[in-house]
Design brief:
single chain; mainly alpha; 5 helices; membrane; DUF2177_membr; DUF1761 domain-containing protein; transmembrane; transmembrane helix
Length: about 160
C-alpha cells in the first residue's frame, strides 16, 4: 500500500511540474508573440498594413486590443496543447521554430486565401502577413518548446 501511495504522490508531483512548465512556457510565448505582433503591425509596417487592408479596417483608435489579445491567447493555448500532448522530447532550436512557424502558416494562409476569394483586399497583404506569422509563431514555438523542456523533461521522470 505504501508503494502505491508513493507512486501516486510522485505522479501528482510530475503532473504539477508538467502543468507549471507549460503555463510558464505559454505565458512567455504569448507575451513575446503579442509584443512582436504589435511592434510589427503598429510600428514597423503600419503604413503598409493600413494602405493594403480591406476598407472595413477600423481606425487605429478603435482597435480592440482585448479581442486581439484573446486571439493571440487562443493561438498560444492551441500551440501549448500540441506541445504538451504530442511532443515527448525537446525538438531543439530548429524543431521548435519549425513547429511554431508551421503553426503560423497553417493559422493564416488558408484563411487569407479563402477571404481573398471573397473580399476585395490586397494579396500582398495576405502574403506579407502570412510570412510575418511564419516568423512570429516560429519564435513563439521556439520559446515555448525550449522553456517547456527546460522546466519539464519527460525523459528524466523514470530516472
Amino acid at each position: 500500500m505504501e508503494n502505491s501511495q508513493c507512486n501516486l504522490d510522485n505522479d501528482i508531483i510530475v503532473n504539477m511540474n508538467k502543468v507549471k512548465a507549460i503555463l510558464i512556457a505559454t505565458a512567455v510565448a504569448f507575451v513575446v508573440m503579442f509584443t512582436l505582433g504589435g511592434v510589427w503591425n503598429a510600428l514597423i509596417l503600419e503604413d503598409f498594413y493600413i494602405s493594403n487592408s480591406p476598407e472595413i479596417l477600423r481606425p487605429a483608435e478603435e482597435f480592440n486590443l482585448g479581442v486581439i489579445a484573446l486571439g493571440y491567447l487562443i493561438l498560444t493555448l492551441i500551440m501549448a496543447f500540441i506541445v504538451m500532448v504530442n511532443m515527448g522530447e525537446n525538438p531543439k532550436f530548429v524543431g521548435g521554430f519549425m513547429f511554431g512557424a508551421t503553426f503560423g502558416l497553417a493559422a493564416t494562409l488558408p484563411l487569407y486565401l479563402i477571404l481573398f476569394g471573397r473580399w476585395d483586399f490586397s494579396l500582398n497583404y495576405a502574403m506579407v502577413d502570412t510570412g510575418w506569422h511564419f516568423f512570429e509563431q516560429g519564435i513563439g514555438g521556439l520559446l515555448m518548446t525550449a522553456l517547456y523542456f527546460k522546466l519539464y523533461n519527460p525523459k528524466n521522470i523514470n530516472d
